[in-house]
Sequence to fold (507 residues):
Amino acid sequence: MQYLIGIDIGTSGTKTVLFTQQGKPVTSHSAEYPLYQPQNGYAEQEPLDWWNAVVETLKAVMAKSGVKKQNIAGIGLSGQMHGLVMLDAKGDVLRRSIIWCDQRTSAECSEITRKVGRERLVEITANPALTGFTASKILWVRNHEPEIYERCRHILLPKDYIRYRLTGEFATEVSDASGMQLLDVPARQWSGEVLSKLEVDPALLGQVYESPEITGAVTANAAELTGLAEGTPVVGGAGDNAAAAVGTGVVRDGRAFTTIGSSGVVYAHTSAISIDKPGRVHTFCCAVPGQWHVMGVTQGAGLSLKWFRDTFCLAEKQTAEDMGVDPYTLLDREAAQSPIGANGLLYLPYIMGERTPHLDADARGVFFGLSAIHRKRDLLRAVMEGVTFSLRDCLGVLREMDVEVGSMAACGGGGSSAFWRQMLADVFACPVTTIDSKEGPALGVALLAGVGTGLYNSVPEACDAVIGFAETCAPAEANTAQYLKYYEVYRNLYPALKDSFSQLRKV
Fold:
């Protein structure tokens, strides 16, 4: 029997899963690492932490599974998008990676817009200049750390740094490269025009592949470190959301998913490119060759709940540890004791700025309506509802663009919560389904590896053979009506606070 491996290099940790050819998980292992925030609005990670986590998790799944290394047909890589990894001529890391949720690059976004032109930039890259994207991070290093920029010889994304460590190849693929703001998204290749206008040497960038294409093979050194066989194929893989789309079967028109990980996403597949000129949502190449996806992004989705848990729920964390359960299970139970609307308390989940629909790096988190009546359970529910309302903003933009959304799947950490899934169904006013596999991005890139190595003929064929649906949460009409009242108040808050967010940054 042949097997496939999916490696998901996330923000909080890396998860590696070994699958059968039929997509059934055999064993998995996860390893966590820290996030560094040296200043307000900054977010960085150590690329070596990612690599050490990949080595640990690969060794663990190979040892636990007992599968012979020669039976691994291929490996797929998924990862957090937009992070900047800079290497010197020897391939050594020059500085910590500036990751997706970092907000320091407002001035560089203005520089990009000035040099390329906003309208032309959207035509080529399908998005306006954004602080989260990689191009502005490159310019920030050039402007603020010129000695590091001068030594840089290779620029990679997080998962592509892992590809380099596994295979020795400097490469990327279209879905992740779409989030760098250097790719011609309609043409699915690096944009010579953007690179020229930004004065970024194209030699710094790796070769661009389609997601299922083989990009290299495991080297002897990586094989010795990980327990893999030398020569094992590694395919392009995908950015985390494009990978999750494959892992949930969202590979045809009309299909969509919501994921609540550190960030939150509403993602819809489209076979024809569709670009939102105001730039409220992102259009990227997807993992299906020759096709695209449109997605709205909430910066601080699961990150909001994790922040609340780690800051205010130490007792719940200890109780969960004593009970041997996930702390989020206890948080769900506590939040469920608060009614819809959290007794008149609203939360804006802008703790890392915001993308959809506001595109505002200055935006910050807010509890609105707080009074002496409120208890911890109300704050918990308000956080979850605020994230859900932000995702509803994303869905609203897709509907304005006439992007078809006939079915909605839920995935990510938040998607594993029945309480949160029902909230999504009620607020979205549409059924929300779950997939029988919980592996999401890891399964998605494992299937891409199956396509690349010839086990499947196409990405949709692989999904049809493997993906099954588990359960559906139908919206409750009364709940939808109740949530709508609070959502209308929520939508009024950002416009009222926009100038204050900007003023606060300048204080």
